[in-house]
Amino acid sequence: MISFIIPAKNEERYIADCLRSISQQKIGEPFEIIVVDNKSSDATVKVVERGFPQVKVVEQSEVGTNPARQKGFEASAGDILIFLDADVRLPAGWTERVTTKLRSKPAYVAISGPYLFYDFPGYLKILSWLYYRIVATTWQFVATRLLRLPSFVIGGNMVIKRQALTQVGGFDTSLKFYGDDTDTGRRLLKVGTVLFNPRYEVYTSARRFKKAGVFRTTIVYLQNYFSLIYKKRVLDKSEYEEIR
Hints:
The chain is α/β, with parallel strands linked by helices. The chain has a single domain (2-231), classed as Spore Coat Polysaccharide Biosynthesis Protein SpsA, Chain A, CATH 3.90.550.10. It contains nine helices and nine strands. The strands form two sheets. It has a seven-stranded mixed β-sheet, with helices on both faces. Strands 6-9 form a two-stranded parallel sheet. β2, α2 and β3 form a beta-alpha-beta unit.
């Protein structure tokens, strides 16, 4: 069974497209969709309940991506757990490709892929595509094969075997946003192989980059990534800003 788990806080503008993209996937096995309402003050829950009655909504009052993912993990039943952001849209055939790959070898415990930003200007779409296809993929090889560092993981595009996530004790709920996915990839690497493959891309909004600036946002992400890798802690120089 597959469990789709989607943390959502004030995502009334995006959640319907995300859920619609899941419902359009061809999935040849039982699946469930869980939306974790992370203390929304808008119509997120109403949008889900009115338009997608088959979706299970659970509440998590502790705000943060990892607390919400942990709540969804605990409420789910699947042996394959797919964690998506609320503004993600899945391309056709994505679910079948990632689940088939993850189940192809016992050593595989998680798969992640890049973002394609559907609301970026054209030139930034090209730059982000090149970044994930060249820079991130090259770093993935250097980090895992040569430096023995954790695989690159994107939190809103993350597929994990339930057994592996259970073995590492679930998500670190003290991490609310920055570094949450890096920490998950680092700990999962202790129990198996974590893959990052540019072919498993999903579409998402570039709202954070557009609001805070592409360069500044990228630097903040990279700072926290390397801090977690080498110092085992997240930098506190930048606080999470809610952007809707």
